Every structure is written in C-alpha cells, then in structure tokens.
Amino acid sequence: MSSVKAPATAFIRRDRVAREAEEERLAPAATRSANSRGRVRPEPPDEFRTAFERDRDRILHSKAFRRLKHKTQVFINPEGDHYVTRLTHTLQVTQISRAIAAALTLNEPLAEAIALGHDVGHSAFGHTGEEALSPYFPDRGWHHAAQSVRILERLEALNLTWEVRDGIRAHSWRIEPPPGTPEAMTVRYGDRIAYLTHDALDAMRAGVLEPTDFPHRALERFGEPGRLWIDEMINAVIDESLRSGDVRMDAPTLEVMNELRDFMFENVYLSPTQRTHTDFAVGVLRRLVDHHLEHPEEIPDSYRDSGAELITQVVDYVAGMTDRFALQAHDRLFGIEG
Predict the structure, then answer these.
(1) Given a cut of 70, is residue 336 above it in pLDDT?
(2) Is 305 left (phi over 0), alpha (psi -120 to 50) or beta?
(3) Cα–Cα distance between 272 and 165 in angstroms, integer?
(4) CA-based nearest residue to 86, from 66, 101, 102
(5) Contact 332, 324 (CB under 8 A)
(6) How far is residue 119 from each of residues 13, 90, 150, measured CA to CA in Å?
(7) What's the average model confidence in pLDDT over 293-297?
C-alpha cells in the first residue's frame, strides 16, 4: 500500500513572532517592535503584524489621513492637476524616510508609520494654520505636530505605540526634545528633503521661480531641481550616518540645504504674492473659529472632544477641515464677499 504524500505548500507562514525575530538582524541602533514602550491602553498583540506595522495600518485607514488629499501644501487651491497636496507630500516623505531607514538597516515599518502620520494635524491652507490659530492659545501657541498626535490619540483614539507618537510629535526641527528613535530622525530629514524638492518644482510650475533663480551653491551641490536633489540629499544622509553613527547629514551639505531653505522662505513661502493668499486664508480660519465659539452647537458630535475646553473643541473642528470644506463653510456663513 503506497502512502499519499501531502502537496508542498507554495507559501510560508510569517507571523508576528517570525517578524519580530527577523528584527534581531537589524542594525544595533534600530528600534525593535518587541521592545516598544507600549501603548497607553494595553492590547493583546496581533497574530501577524508587529506593533509598528499595526500602527502604520491604523494611520493609513484613519479619516485624518484621507483628508490630506484636499489640504494645501504651499499653493492654495491651485489651478492644475500636478501641484503637490498634503497627501502627496506625505507619501513622498514616507518613501524618502523608508529609503534612508532601509539603507541604514533600521526598522522600516516604524519610519513608515511616523511618516504617514506626521502631517495629519495640519489645518487647511498649509502652515497658514499655525499663524491663524496660535493667537487662540497665547501660552503655548498651536503647532501641527502636536495636533497630529492629538487627532490620532484623542479624536480618533488609535492607541498608537509610544515610538510612533514620539516620532510624530517631534518630526519638525522646531520641536524639542528631539525624537527618541533613529527611525524618527529619518522622517525629520525625509520631510525637509521632500518639501524643498517638490515645493521648488511647484514654484517653477506656478511661474514664481526659474531654474536659474536658485542659490548657486544649491545648484552646484545638488544639480537641477527634481530627482537629482532627492538622490543627492538622501545619499548625503546615508553616507554621514554610516560614518558618524547617528542619523544626520554632513555639515557642508546641511549648510547648503539650510541656505536653500532660507531662499525658499524668502522667495516662495513668505513672498509678497504668497502673502496675499496667506492673509486671505488666515481670515477664513479665524472667522470660522470665532463663529463656532459663538455657536458650538454646530460642531458635529463625531468630531468633538467633549472633555476639552471650548476653544480646543472649536479649533479641533476648524483645523480638521480640508481647504474646500473650509471655503464652503465660510461662504455659507459669511457669503463669498466675506
């Protein structure tokens, strides 16, 4: 009697335990998901995903992430299909951060989760929101990074790990203390590399800048605006990080990058032309806040932290609006002329 041999499977099971074991082969400085500081509310582990993979998926499926597709990066309500939005910026930051993390053998899902969530707290009309909303919080101001954490933790209650929340909190270079993981530092660099590059291309697309307008040292170090810039900046971070043992860019290249950033602020972000749009956007947001302070009953229950102060509830709602929703609400309440 011959025995029947079971067919060999075409797949290999790779569950959370196997994935955590694979993380032992990461660089010594990398963050292991099994060593996470954990969540505010303890949860049983997932069968297949590591803690950081689970966070990545939660952010990707959040409402705040979906709203990014209708939020401004730099140019408010631009005419044209190829301008960067807050969503495409986020995807570009994610790609760059993962590229750096992969080259340094860091924890890529952690870098990805932080990058996907880093900007969900931005208001409509880009960084204009910080200028518009900070006066309502005279003691601490209002910053999109803190709002990103607040949205994901309080308003959507995703219960993310400490490492992801910390990376989102401190992804901006203005925030101290700096993030506590090297993966979060890849997002700091990824954010700056992405916005300098695609905002330069958008400025040329809008006719604000010509290719020859950029600082000579930036063109000499990074080449023509576009893919060359991204490649040169990423490689500068990788090379210096491998040399120094910290996620960083070499000092000469960082000096050129900072010169380019100053140029972009002077000639694009804070230019007189852009200021016209910024002033309009600030007025829209502040009128919406003032109206809802007088009529808090108009804030939907689905987007309200009833335990917070009224001003926080109102700003949560207004800051969560997309550009077009804010403009529609403004026109409905005050008329287009307003």
Answers:
(1) no
(2) beta
(3) 36
(4) 66
(5) no
(6) 35, 7, 12
(7) 97
Question: Is residue 86 within 8 Å of 119, Cβ to Cβ?
Answer: yes
Cβ atoms 256, 221 nearer than 8 A: yes
Provide the β-strand partners of residue 39.
161
pTM, two decimal places: 0.94
CA atoms of 235 and 230, how far apart (whole Å): 9
Distance of CA 91 to the CA centre of its chain: 9
Pick the more confident residue, 74 or 22.
Answer: 22
CA 294, chain centre distance (Å): 32
User: What ranges do the domains of the chain cover?
Assistant: 51-334
CA distance 262 to 266: 6
Q: State how far Cα 199 lies from the chain centre.
A: 15
Closest CA to 315 of 150, 133, 145: 133
For the domain spanning 51-334, the CATH number is 1.10.3210.10
Residue 208 burial by Cβ neighbours in a 10 Å radius (0-12, 13-18, 19+): middle
CA distance 283 to 196: 27
Q: Contact at 8 Å (CB) between 187 and 93?
A: yes
Residues 130 and 141: beta-carbon distance below 8 Å: yes
pLDDT in tens, 172-205: 999 999 999 999 999 999 999 999 999 999 889 8
- For residues 146-172, give the mean pLDDT: 98
Token pair belonging to 198: 């695609």
- Cα separation, 298 vs 291, whole angstroms: 10
Task: Say how far apart CA 300 and CA 176 lie, in whole Å.
Answer: 34
Cis peptide before 177 (omega within 30 of 0): yes
Q: If you search the block for the tokens 């994901």, which residue do you land on?
A: 152
